[in-house]
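User: I'm designing a mutation panel for RagB/SusD domain-containing protein and want to avoid disrupting the core. Could you give me a predicted structure to guide residue selection? Please restate the sequence first so the numbering is unambiguous.

Assistant: Good idea. Sequence first, for numbering, then the predicted structure tokens:
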Amino acid sequence: MKKIFFNTNKIIIGLLLVAGLFASCKKLIEIPANPTSQVTQQEEFADSASTMSAVAGVYVYNGGNGFGYSDGDMTVCSALSADEVTTSISSDAQQFYTYTLTSLNSYITGNLWSYPYQSMFQVNSVLSGVANNSALSAAFQKQITGEMEVVRALYYFNLVNIFGGVPLVTTTNYAATAHLPRATTTAIYAQIKADLTDAEKKLTATYPSPGRFRPNLYTAMALLAKVDLYLGNWQSAYTEANSVINSGLYNVANVPLNGVFLNGSNEAIWQLPANGLFGVNSDAAHFLPLYSGATPNYPVTPFLLNAFEAGDQRLQNWIGSTSVGNQTFSYSNKYKNLDATVTTEDQMILRLAEVYLIRAEAAAHINNLPQAIADINTIRTRAGLPNTTADVTSPTAVLNAVMHERQTELFCEWGNRWFDLKRTGTAAAVLGSEKTGYSTNAALYPLPQTQIQLDNLLIQNPGY
């Protein structure tokens, strides 16, 4: 797997980290003056200032470099696989919508597989560099370790939900990682939970820098709540989500729909400064028409449009429309800024509305139906809707109401709809009736053929 698990005795900071830090993360971390472009690992972690330069590289928002999902393609591909958007821009993109993926698909080989692993190398490098480093204070080591564990957990959470079992890499030692088999999904989730549980012990409620760009305690809790929800650990998911909601640091009711994704949003639990080199935000660049009169690259499907109830302000504020000739196209309009000179929008990773819906779903499963209803109504009220009419005595009715709210609240965000359909076992029924070509094998994407050729221990997913 040489293209993924590389090793060198020099850690490349390079032009991306140097230029990207100034362009994309200036408000995240103040980096030392005149940083070098190449340093040894020992030099890179010689003190807290040089270590922070390496840490900043993890959060750089620029395509597939730095932060592994800042190109936005994971959101696009999963939205195509679900029932949220369609496309005609390329055959590789269309394969996700029509369930005709191949292991040579360019999104699979690069954006969804290689980029996260490349970014994870930097995460593992930081973890290795700060561990037992006498040049760094114990408090500093704890903070950075906790942050990197949260980032790594996010990468593996996405990878395991996209591909199933994947190689589990927690080191930068190429000799140990050049040829690895796929770890089981159980092993991947165990690593995710171990990272997040340890991060909870190391992180504080206070964000370590201005904004909410680097994880704090509640970031780890929110992601762990999501993980436990996916694993069916209902009480744990409820407890973690409840702690985040009751922390008092975040708010939904006082955040208007068009303020959710702005820099400084009080709903944000984790967001990155999204002023990349080719546009402010990759989600905006993907979903918005690129100029007046242009057809959106990924128009919203009728399936998503029809999910909104009459009077839902999310339809008015988060779905845009444009006319091209005599045809009207709708598109995701959560991020509204294509101008790289305007930096008011940040890339949202975790937000409080999702945590409310996590608590609602978990509450329904542990038979706390009134709490589930209350949480659903919190989200509906912000959307300008009346309280849910779901039968408070019926767990099934309440769970259906939760899933409906997740569909209309979290669309085109981080694969939530695609993952929800799969984890609830409803993908075949929903997608099979809406689209053609769906089969159970389509629930997992193929591993890149290039990686299988490089690593003979990798086994392809069924059906590819």
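For picking mutation sites, this is relevant: The longest strand covers residues 268-273. The two ends are 19 Å apart (CA to CA).
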